[in-house]
Every structure is written in structure tokens, then in C-alpha cells.
């Protein structure tokens, strides 16, 4: 039929395009997984505790020692002052004033549900302040006691106890549109306002007020000393002007109008001052004009160069300029303070075996500091000016982390530490052209992050480039063109196919996808129609892995199909485990699936997989179905299909095609790995706990843990008993050895688990998931 020809050709082209683009981009599109990467390469992640700025960003907005007024449960309608002992997420451990160092009456409360108020709320609202009954007789004059107790103390901010900011972490207080002042790079007395365009876990994309496009956006971590609250410049009698390189973009009137509009907007939604509570206080420096030092190049952080102190502004700030001896030199200057990252004493490079970049215009091939100082008549900055110039903060060679690309600050890359010298790290950024040199960062840099930071904050991470040799060598033959030569893509160009040279037992011919066959309740017929007609020939495991991956992606619910494939096994098969992935509604599912290695076992394997998926046994098979299917599957309905294998044993279809996971056969292979779900979320509070549980389709109620006793009362033995009952039983002895009781358990986080228990990222995440279950149950059952 000529009328059908264009459609037929289009479908053929669609399949051809799908086949080749899928095989070449399949690995690129798949989510980069740190745990798998570190496990496959045997590499080590840099410890989370080495990233001080990230650790601070995870902390609660509430600080130990803060005072607040809390409802007194022992006496209705009365309140009493309490002190925050410690925090754990949105949980606060409180102690009523009057108990001193006695912790027996400490209690937890959820800031989101408990009745908490700032100090002074009771007097403003005519409420009664009354001490708990247990200590009522301890003091004769409680008014005098409170005056002494509250003098010099810090009260919990009212906006964190009520309203839209209630219970939020510090990082979460910074929302898109917040206005902040940014110090100029070259003048410490010059500031200009900027709006927050993005907040990625505390890493802020800032757009100068008055500009609309992102061409001049600046990326800074919220703890950077260049950032100040709106009004800072005016209060400290500093200049408020746009950066010199941007002033020509608008008239002075336009800049001023933009600033006034931003101020008016910020007054309606002010940025809480708590955002700046963790900013480091600058220490006094001892640099003088004319002193020489070494510094990581501010424009190209790939080498270290000589610089000079060209101006001292005050006791906190001074200016350094990169040495340039050429007549046409354009000064490259930067404002620094005593703890600026990347500044080093003279001879630092020589002592650490690092090459020092010669100043431009320096005539001699070999740079020598003694000759250079003599020629210039200058002095070196003493070592006392550089605190902690030799400390590495726990970083070591070959550790892995995530780092900002200095050429494109919006990009964060997988990075490997190639060397550590004192407080400097040399990083090889992955996923970039090989011509990009290793960049140098300070251990205190806020442009480096622990592994998993991007995923936790739902930000794109540039993964390592895939080597060419990794592309599968699988032949794809397409519908409507069976007689033509098979087009192939190499399975593995680096290694020969492992097979028995006598009979090729480990190599199979084609596996056909018979599009006309019944697809069953799990697979989408339309997606099946877009798959190539055949896959192969090639190594059995690789051909089958590709077929199974295509079937998973053609499913209505890929995670469910992945779960079904876990149960496909036979004790007589010679199998190899492969990790398969599925994506569904923003989640990534992973599981180890057993795949046969021998060609003679493929027909049986294919039929059992089809049985599990309740589709026609010939849907994918070593046999091509050219006409009517021998199983007469076209007569079957979409909701019913019956299989007969061996002795006519009937395998029934689960109710509604969505059988609950609890109804699965109880007999499973002992080493079966559960599917873990990694749910991506947009949040600036870093949470390393995996979202979901091994039962990927159970409801929240089914997965919720119910505690028989308050975990705050658990002994060490109780904790060990609980851990033993989970899939982290092998770690129970650690809790015994470290005497971790219930209270300590509730305070554990991923960084502390990794540091104190010396666990790798995978087991640590798995353990934190179980701890999080206890916390959630505690919130629900006992926090109030």
C-alpha cells in the first residue's frame, strides 16, 4: 500500500535512530553513581569532615545555649524557660532552667510541632512563667534566678520559632530573590547589592541588582566573607556602587533606581540575620606594603606565581598584585586577608618541590628568590603572616571529591586529588578535555565538596568521560530490512570476547524482539514497537543485558519489572551478575540480576523472563516469529495470559498487574541485593539518607517503623538488638564496642557515621537509612 510507505519508512528510521543513539548514549545518560564508581575503581572518597563549610551548612539554625520559653506539660497553661542542649535536625534537646548540669529531665521536642516561643513572649501575652514541679522548691526567688540566668544569654530568634521560617536550617533561610551585599574583588570599601538567583546547598548564584541576564552572575558559598546583609555598607560608612567593569552598562540614575527597588523589595521579605551567624571573624594581618609572597594565580588557578603586597587598607585587608615586569603590564590585583586561601610564604614552592611560575618579563630562565629580592630591593613576608600554611586537613592523594570548574563556575565536576602539598590540593577534573591542566585549590576552599553533594542537592554533576572501548558491540537488525547486512557496534574494543574457542559457548547469535507478540501487563506495547528487531550477535551476558535494559525501559513501571527480574533463576544455570538500572518518576532503581553465560541456556532463560513478565514466551527469543505466533498470543487479552511450562503448571497473573511485594515467593537467593531507591530532591539542606526502602512500592504506612519503647531510653544492648534485626546486622558489634545508646543513636549523621565507624559511603548510607527510620518513628510516637 503506497499510502503506508512513508509511515513504514519513518518507523524504520525511528528504530534505527533509537538503536544507535541508545547504545552510544545509554551510559552517558545513566545517572553517575558515586558508590558504584568508588567500588569499581577501589578509590576512596575524601572524608566529609574535611569540608568545614559543608559541615557548617548542615547545622541547625538553633545553637546550643540558646534560651526559649516552652510549654510546661506538668502544669497546663504555664511556661518555663529552657536551654537548648543540642540539636538533631528539627529536633531540639531541651533542659529547663534550674536543673543545672542534671540531665535526667532533658527532653526532646520537634520545633515544627512543639509550643516554643522566644524569651519574653509570656510577659507580652500575659502568660504564666512557672518552674516544673520537680524543682519548684529549689529556689525561693525564681524571679531573681531568671534574671541571673538570662543575663548575657542568647535567645532563640522569634522568626525561627513561628511563621514561614519555622524550623528551617540556616541554608534554607536563603531563598530565591533574597537580596544581599557583595564586596568588590579589588576594593574592600566597595559593595553592591545582588539577588540570589539560585541556592544550591548554600552555594549561591548571585546576580547584581540592575542586571537581568546571567552573563555576569557570580557564584559564592553563603559563608564567604565577601557577603554581608543588606544595609551593611551604609551602617559601616562604606561605598555602595556597582563593580567598575559593570558601571558602563547603565547610567548612574538607572543603577540607583534598581538599588532602591531592591531595597523596597527586601524590606517586605528581609533575609534573616541568622544567615550570617557562622561567618568567620577576620583576624588582624601583619603584612606591609612591598612584601613579597607566593600565591595561586587568581586568574588561572593552575600554577603558583610571585606576588607583591601593593596596598594595606586596614588591619584586616590588604591588596596583592601579580608580579609582571613587562612595560605594557596591566596590574592584576586582589583583596586579601590573613586567612585568604592560596597565599603562601616565599620559598614554599621550593620546599614542597613545586615549580614556581616566573614573572612575565623576567629575563633569566631559572627563577631565584634571592636574586629577585636583591634586584627589586624588597623583603619577604615572614612565615608568621601565614597561619596553618602546612596543614592538609585530612585530604590525601588519590581521594575523590566534587569540585567547581574554575573556567566555568556553574559547572561542578568529579575530581581526583593528584597531590597534596601543605594546604594546597592539585585536582584533576573529570569529564573535561585532557588539555585542561590540573587546578590548585586551598583546603579551606568553598569550591570543593564531598562526594554525593551534587546528587543530594539535585544539581548536575559532570561525570568522568566514558572511554571509547566501553561501548557495547551488539548488532542491531531492524524491522523491514532483514536481508540487509547487520550493522554492528563493538561490544568491547579493548578486550577479546571471553569464549570457548572450540564451540563459542559464551557467544550467542541474535536475540529477537518479536513486536507482534503479546506484551503482557507490565510492558508498554507502543514502546516495544520502537525497539530494534534483534540484538546480537555477541557475548551472551552483554547481549542479554542490553535486551533486559530495553525491556525495563519499555515498562509501565520500570522499577516493578526490575524487581520481577530478581526472581529469574535456576540452580542449573551458569550465571553472571550484572547491575541493571531503571528510572521512574525521578527515582533511580538498581539491582543485581543473574544472567546466563552459556548460549545453550539462553532459550530457557528467555522463556522464564517472559513468564515472570507475563508476556508471550516469544516476545524476545532466539527464534524469530515471522508470521503468526506459535503460542497464538494474539488471541489473549491485555489483562490475562496463561503460561504452561513442563507439567502444565499454571502461573497466575497478580491482581491488577500490581502484586504487592509481600506476595512474592518466599524462597530467594541468600545473596540477593535489594533495590535501593535514590530520590532526587531540591533542597539546600544536605541529607545523605536514601529516600525509600528495599520494598520500593510499599506505601509509607507499610514501611514505617513502630517502636515499642522510647529510643531515648534504649540501652546499648537495645540498640545492638535493633541493628541486628535490620539488614545492617554485620555492623552491630560497632555499636557494642563504642557504647552507643539510644540518645547517641538519634544524634548520628552520615559524616559522624563515616568518621567514627570508618565505614565506606555505601554501608554508611545503608546504616543511616535505618537510623532515620528510628528518628521518624521517634518524631511520630514520642517527640510530643
UniProtKB/TrEMBL annotation:
GO cellular component: nucleus
A Pfam family hit: MBT
Principal location: nucleus
MBT repeats: 32-132, 140-243, 253-359, 367-464
UniProt domain SAM: residue ranges: 711-777
Protein's UniProt keywords contain Nucleus: yes
Subcellular location(s) of the protein: Nucleus
Keywords of this entry: Nucleus, Repeat, Repressor
GO molecular function: chromatin binding; histone binding; transcription corepressor activity
CDD domains linked to this entry: SAM_Scm-like-4MBT1_2 (cd09581)
PANTHER family hit by this protein: POLYCOMB GROUP PROTEIN, SCM-LIKE WITH FOUR MBT DOMAINS PROTEIN 2
Protein's recorded name: Scm like with four mbt domains 2
Organism: Oncorhynchus mykiss (Rainbow trout)
Amino acid at each position: 500500500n503506497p499510502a503506508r510507505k512513508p509511515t513504514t519508512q519513518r518507523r524504520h528510521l525511528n528504530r534505527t535512530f533509537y538503536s544507535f543513539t541508545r547504545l552510544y548514549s545509554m551510559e552517558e545518560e545513566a545517572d553517575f553513581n558515586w558508590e558504584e564508581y568508588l567500588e569499581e575503581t577501589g578509590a576512596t572518597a575524601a572524608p566529609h569532615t574535611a569540608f568545614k563549610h559543608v559541615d557548617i551548612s548542615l547545622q541547625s539554625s538553633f545553637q546550643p545555649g540558646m534560651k526559649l520559653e516552652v510549654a510546661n506539660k506538668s502544669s497546663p497553661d504555664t511556661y518555663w524557660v529552657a536551654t537548648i542542649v543540642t540539636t538533631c535536625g528539627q529536633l531540639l534537646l531541651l533542659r529547663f532552667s534550674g536543673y543545672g548540669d542534671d540531665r535526667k529531665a532533658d527532653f526532646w521536642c520537634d520545633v515544627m510541632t512543639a509550643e516554643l516561643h522566644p524569651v519574653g513572649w509570656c510577659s507580652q501575652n500575659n502568660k504564666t512563667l512557672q518552674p516544673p514541679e520537680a524543682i519548684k522548691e529549689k529556689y525561693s526567688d525564681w524571679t531573681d534566678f531568671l534574671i541571673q540566668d538570662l543575663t548575657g544569654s542568647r535567645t532563640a530568634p522569634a522568626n525561627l520559632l513561628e511563621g514561614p521560617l519555622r524550623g528551617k536550617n540556616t541554608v534554607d533561610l536563603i531563598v530565591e530573590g533574597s537580596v544581599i551585599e557583595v564586596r568588590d574583588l579589588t576594593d574592600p570599601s566597595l559593595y553592591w547589592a545582588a539577588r540570589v538567583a539560585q541556592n544550591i546547598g548554600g552555594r549561591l548564584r548571585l546576580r547584581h541588582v540592575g542586571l537581568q541576564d546571567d552573563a555576569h552572575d557570580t557564584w559564592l558559598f553563603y559563608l564567604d566573607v565577601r557577603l554581608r546583609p543588606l544595609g551593611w555598607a551604609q551602617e559601616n560608612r562604606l561605598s555602595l556602587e556597582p563593580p567598575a567593569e559593570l558601571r558602563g552598562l547603565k547610567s548612574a540614575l538607572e543603577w540607583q533606581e534598581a538599588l532602591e527597588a531592591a531595597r523596597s523589595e527586601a524590606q517586605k521579605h528581609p533575609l534573616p540575620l541568622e544567615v550570617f551567624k557562622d561567618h568567620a571573624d577576620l583576624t588582624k594581618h601583619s603584612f606591609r606594603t612591598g612584601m613579597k609572597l607566593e600565591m595561586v594565580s587568581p586568574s588561572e588557578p593552575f600554577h603558583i606565581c610571585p606576588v607583591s603586597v601593593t596596598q594595606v587598607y586596614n588591619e584586616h585587608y590588604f591588596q596583592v598584585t601579580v608580579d609582571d615586569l613587562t612595560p605594557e603590564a596591566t596590574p592584576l590585583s586582589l583583596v586579601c586577608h590573613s586567612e585568604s586561601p592560596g597565599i603562601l610564604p616565599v620559598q614554599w614552592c621550593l620546599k614542597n618541590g613545586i615549580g614556581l611560575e616566573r614573572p612575565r618579563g623576567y629575563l633569566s630562565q631559572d627563577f631565584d628568590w634571592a636574586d629577585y629580592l636583591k634586584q627589586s630591593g624588597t623583603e619577604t613576608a615572614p612565615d608568621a603572616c601565614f597561619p596553618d600554611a602546612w596543614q592538609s586537613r585530612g585530604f590525601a592523594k588519590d581521594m575523590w571529591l566534587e569540585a567547581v570548574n574554575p573556567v566555568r563556575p556553574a559547572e561542578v565536576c568529579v575530581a581526583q586529588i593528584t597531590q597534596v602539598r601543605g594546604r594546597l590540593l592539585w585536582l584533576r577534573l573529570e569529564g573535561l578535555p585532557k588539555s585542561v591542566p590540573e587546578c590548585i585549590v586551598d583546603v579551606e576552599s568553598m569550591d570543593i565538596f564531598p562526594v554525593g553533594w551534587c546528587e543530594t542537592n539535585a544539581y548536575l554533576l559532570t561525570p568522568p568521560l566514558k572511554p571509547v572501548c566501553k561501548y557495547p558491540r551488539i548488532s542491531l537488525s531492524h524491522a523491514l530490512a532483514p536481508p540487509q547486512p547487520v550493522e554492528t557496534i563493538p561490544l568491547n574494543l579493548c578486550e577479546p570476547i571471553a569464549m570457548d574457542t572450540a564451540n563459542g559457548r559464551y557467544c550467542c547469535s541474535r536475540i529477537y524482539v518479536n513486536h507482534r507478540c503479546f506484551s503482557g501487563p507490565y510492558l508498554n506495547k507502543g514502546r516495544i514497537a520502537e525497539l530494534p528487531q534483534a540484538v546480537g550477535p555477541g557475548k551472551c551476558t552483554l547481549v542479554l543485558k542490553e535486551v533486559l535494559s530495553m525491556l525495563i525501559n519499555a515498562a509501565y513501571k520500570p522499577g516493578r519489572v526490575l524487581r520481577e527480574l530478581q526472581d529469574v533463576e535456576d540452580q542449573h544455570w551458569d550465571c553472571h551478575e550484572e547491575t541493571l538500572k531503571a528510572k521512574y518518576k525521578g527515582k533511580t532503581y538498581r539491582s543485581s540480576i543473574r544472567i546466563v553465560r552459556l548460549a545453550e541456556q539462553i532459550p530457557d532463560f528467555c522463556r522464564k523472563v517472559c513468564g515472570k513478565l507475563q508476556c508471550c514466551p516469544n516476545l524476545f527469543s532466539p527464534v524469530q516469529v515471522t508470521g503468526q505466533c506459535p503460542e497464538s498470543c494474539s488471541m489473549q487479552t491485555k489483562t490475562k495470559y496463561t503460561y504452561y511450562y513442563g507439567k502444565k503448571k499454571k502461573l497466575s497473573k497478580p491482581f491488577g498487574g500490581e502484586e504487592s511485594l509481600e506476595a512474592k515467593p518466599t524462597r530467594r537467593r541468600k545473596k540477593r541485593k535489594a533495590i535501593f531507591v535514590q530520590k532526587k530532591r531540591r533542597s539546600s539542606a544536605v541529607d545523605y539518607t536514601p529516600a525509600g526502602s528495599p520494598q520500593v512500592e510499599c506505601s509509607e504506612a507499610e514501611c514505617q517503623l513502630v517502636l515499642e519503647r522510647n529510643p531515648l531510653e534504649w540501652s546499648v544492648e537495645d540498640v545492638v538488638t535493633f541493628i541486628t534485626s535490620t539488614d545492617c546486622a554485620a555492623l552491630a558489634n560497632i555499636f557494642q564496642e563504642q557504647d552507643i545508646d539510644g540518645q547517641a543513636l538519634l544524634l548520628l549523621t552520615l559524616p559522624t557515621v563515616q568518621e567514627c565507624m570508618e565505614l565506606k559511603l555505601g554501608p554508611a548510607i545503608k546504616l543511616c537509612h535505618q537510623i532515620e527510620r528510628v528518628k521518624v518513628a521517634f518524631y511520630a510516637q514520642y517527640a510530643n
